[in-house]
């Protein structure tokens, strides 16, 4: 398979950016360069997206550890030393699909430097966590990443996960106040985890089972939206950067185009999981990206 599948190509053609996408797509490879390996070893947070082999639902999950818990162990392999018990139906403990190891997407985002790295590939369980054999490795620009200058590790006891089929007032408020979330998507030959950011209010809760967000112009590759065009399953992860609370959503998403070409993604909820104090990290207050459009109404 080439860099882009049919879903991504269709959107590139629809928006007239195929040439630019081909140029940017040259940055996608399988090798983990030394600068990327060094970046990974500095991170205390990794987000992983995958489809649950049991239910088919797509989830985005957060894993944390002391810097070095994620590291490159080969030119095309990362190892993650982490207790995956916090995953919702972790792919590391579920039966493997018939066509081999589970496909996962990962993203490491550093708010301190506004840098991010994505690595997609196949997951293999280990005694201390898992490895991922890379199919795609690439970085994105810092656009829409909020800067958080520092973090501290705090002693927290995660609450019991609450499973919901509708968003209550608390969950809706959590989403409306968010400046960042992570999006997991899948396609026939892989999975992907990406970042979405904006000023608080950029994600709208339109009903207890539906929310929307604008798709801001980006790198023109349309990896996530291309996946959604061919497979609407999606997982969203919102996190509270101060308290460590996480809100995971799984459902389906579709892209809507306005007459002026503006894009909105509409997500319909199947299930939500809210976990108080799930992550042991407390980050400093954000400095919003200057690229964020104003969300004031």
From TrEMBL:
<dbReference type="InterPro" id="IPR011576">
    <property type="entry name" value="Pyridox_Oxase_N"/>
</dbReference>
<feature type="domain" description="Pyridoxamine 5'-phosphate oxidase N-terminal">
    <location>
        <begin position="174"/>
        <end position="262"/>
    </location>
</feature>
<dbReference type="InterPro" id="IPR012349">
    <property type="entry name" value="Split_barrel_FMN-bd"/>
</dbReference>
<dbReference type="Pfam" id="PF01243">
    <property type="entry name" value="PNPOx_N"/>
</dbReference>
<protein>
    <submittedName>
        <fullName>Pyridoxamine 5'-phosphate oxidase family protein</fullName>
    </submittedName>
</protein>
